[in-house]
Automatic annotation (TrEMBL):
This is Glutaminase. The gene is glsA. It catalyses: L-glutamine + H2O = L-glutamate + NH4(+). Its EC number is 3.5.1.2. Keywords: Acetylation, Hydrolase. One of its GO terms (molecular function) is glutaminase activity. Belongs to the glutaminase family. One of its GO terms (biological process) is L-glutamine catabolic process.
Length: 317
């Protein structure tokens, strides 16, 4: 007798253990309503606080998705590791490493404090990221943002757009970043016109991604710079290992110590509500939930990473 034909729903029921785990995370943490949507960039305050998406990409290119995994949000600080990697490859490590430190600051992401040389502590805080954008502008001039957008797209495996309203909103209100950029110009880290550098930085922060994109971007870092979905080598292994290093020590700002102690996976958050985590040679995780804690990290995103690390024993150490 021929086997009975399977209905599509039967296939859906045949979920892998990982898929069932991600579904359970989504269900368990959906009820978590702690934290608040960022509103210091006024436009970000319009995000739906209930959105919640999770995606996990393996280094063999399989992508799992749960919930609002295709909902677009602005990349914000999750752009920082990728632009740092791009700067290393574009300008050379010596140039970049002489301008930006690699020490955790222990300060919040928007701290105006610089290190003893009046350089940014590391490329994961705003000061360091603004310096990276300035370096890319040194190399690429007025084409700097487009160069960054294309590179972010290669990490994600698709062309990425910009949220113009968020860009305009941050440009209109970003005086703290303007102050940081002037301090960097004062110490010679920025040589360019401050407003031009900040235009690149604010645009880079306004690039739109989804949880799925974040997972693929993280998986590209986990996979030595090769996008596991497209097969493209996006950045060099040198740039990837240094980027994962600063994500490990500083990716979660003044929560970085607690993070690496409890979760043990290099990660980067953004005030748009994204968190991405890259476990070398294994996987990339992307989550989106815009309610943030006092450090500017997504509350549910932290829970997902903690649960994943604990359940599969993924702590690196
Ligand atoms: O510069 C800012 O303040 C924002 N464009 C990005 C900050 C951010 O995402 C911090 N992350 N959690």
């Amino acid at each position: 007798h021929p086997a009975p034909r399977r209905h599509a729903n039967d296939w859906a029921a045949l979920k892998s253990p990982l898929r069932r785990f991600l579904d359970a995370c989504h269900a368990d943490f959906s009820v978590e309503t702690g934290g608040a949507v960022a509103n210091y960039i006024p436009e970000l305050g319009k995000a739906d606080p209930n959105h919640f998406g999770i995606s996990l990409a393996t280094i063999d290119g399989y992508v799992y998705e749960v919930g609002d995994s295709r909902e677009p949000f602005t990349i914000q600080s999750m752009s920082k590791p990728f632009v740092f990697a791009l700067a290393l490859d574009t300008l050379g490590a010596d140039h970049v490493e002489s301008a930006i430190g690699v020490e955790p600051s222990g300060d919040p992401f928007n701290s105006i404090r610089l290190d003893a040389n009046n350089h940014p502590f590391n490329p994961m805080v705003n000061a360091g990221a603004i310096a990276c954008s300035a370096l890319i502008r040194e190399a690429e001039g007025d084409g700097a943002f487009e160069y960054i957008r294309q590179a972010l797209g290669r990490f994600a495996g698709r062309e990425l757009g910009v949220d113009e309203a968020v860009f305009a909103s941050e440009s209109a209100t970003g005086d703290r970043n303007r102050a940081i950029a002037y301090m960097l110009r004062n110490s010679g880290v920025i040589k360019d016109d401050v407003s031009k550098v900040l235009e690149v930085y604010f645009r880079q922060c306004s690039v739109l991604v989804t949880a799925r994109d974040s997972a693929v971007m993280a998986a590209t870092l986990a996979n030595h710079g090769i996008n596991p979905v497209t097969g493209e080598q996006v950045v060099t292994p040198y740039a990837v290992s240094r980027t994962l290093s600063v994500m490990t020590s500083s990716g979660m700002y003044d929560y970085a110590g607690e993070w690496i102690y409890r979760v043990g996976i290099p990660a980067k958050s953004g005030v748009g509500g994204g968190i991405l985590a890259a476990l070398p040679a294994r996987l990339g995780l992307g989550s989106y939930s815009p309610r943030l804690d006092s450090h500017g990290n997504s509350v549910r995103g932290i829970k997902v990473c903690e649960a994943l690390s604990a359940h599969y024993d993924l702590h690196m150490l």
